[in-house]
Amino acid sequence: MKVVKGLDVERYMGRWYEIASFPSFFQPKNGENTRATYTLNDDGTVHVLNETYANGKKVSIEGTAYKADPKSDEAKLKVKFYVPPFLPIIPVVGDYWVLYIDDDYQYAVIGGPTTKYLWILSRKNRIDEEVFNALVQEAKDVGYDVSKLHKTPQSETPPEGEEGPKDTKGIWWIKSLFGK
């Protein structure tokens, strides 16, 4: 799998919106306004905050990303979350490989060592169809079956802050184990 080399981690920090992804058991099936916010920690790791809205409630999980091989210039990261979110005791580590990023750090294609997971991200919650198609082509060019992509619903005005009821019990996480 070809990955980005020389990723400028500081430029990559900030908010990214999920434009499309492959459905996965660890994300709510009916999630919308899905986004990730990355913040650089003093030790060089990255604080990860993944948020989505499911059934009218904001759900989130926090984790830490770090370079898989600190000596490599490849954008191969590991992301560690603790689950379940309501009693975070079990560490779960996944791959986060930046397969493509544009020169302005506005669009990214994320995957891993296999073609099981795929995310198309943007700094804005909506993108032109032409840009979307170009990003899909990037994924297709490295072997992804892009027919499995699911566009993530995004509101015209993205939600900000802490508004709305929250799923503080992690019910979404339990439901996701059963494909709901």
UniProtKB/TrEMBL annotation:
Location of region: Disordered: 149-168
Lipocalin/cytosolic fatty-acid binding domain mapped to chain residues: 7-154
Family: Belongs to the calycin superfamily. Lipocalin family.
Name of the featured protein: Temperature-induced lipocalin-1 isoform X1
Protein origin, superkingdom: Eukaryota
InterPro entries linked to this entry: Calycin (IPR012674), Lipocalin_ApoD (IPR022271), Lipocalin_bac (IPR002446), Lipocalin_Blc-like_dom (IPR047202), Lipocalin_CS (IPR022272), Lipocln_cytosolic_FA-bd_dom (IPR000566)
Gene Ontology cellular component list: cytoplasm
Species this protein is from: Arachis duranensis (Wild peanut)
Gene Ontology terms: biological process: lipid metabolic process; response to reactive oxygen species
